[in-house]
Amino acid sequence: MRKLFISLLLALPAASAFAQPSCYVVGDSIAYGVSVNLPCQSDTQVGINTRDALKRFTNPPSAALAIISLGINDRGTALPTKANLEAMRIRVKARRAVWILPSYPDKKAIVQAVASRHHDEVLNIDPLISTDGIHPTMQGYRTIAHKLQNGIK
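^ that's the sequence the OP posted. Answer follows.
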């Protein structure tokens, strides 16, 4: 019986937990909204700032595409946003990385600088922002997901 079980187990395809995901979404509430519209592995937390992200996202999986949304929740704090984002980017292992730019100009500039340093892409979502000035509209999230689909194999 044990040999039969092992034979059956070996015949099964590898579990997805061990396979490299084609995409990985990491970050804040915007990352969450994007992740529900994509067939990606994700690790998100509403309201997370860059300091807490470094504590939470300690070992992200390797992926073909990483989608990162962080920085907006550092507004009004003395957190070292740029250093934290640099540390997060070093942890993220992906052939292609896309940063979703926050709507606040000072945080947007920091994210752009980090992305540029790593030769990553950025996605400006300003035209898709809702009346709260931070989050995309529901249609905006779908539009973002559609734009990112090209990076997902």
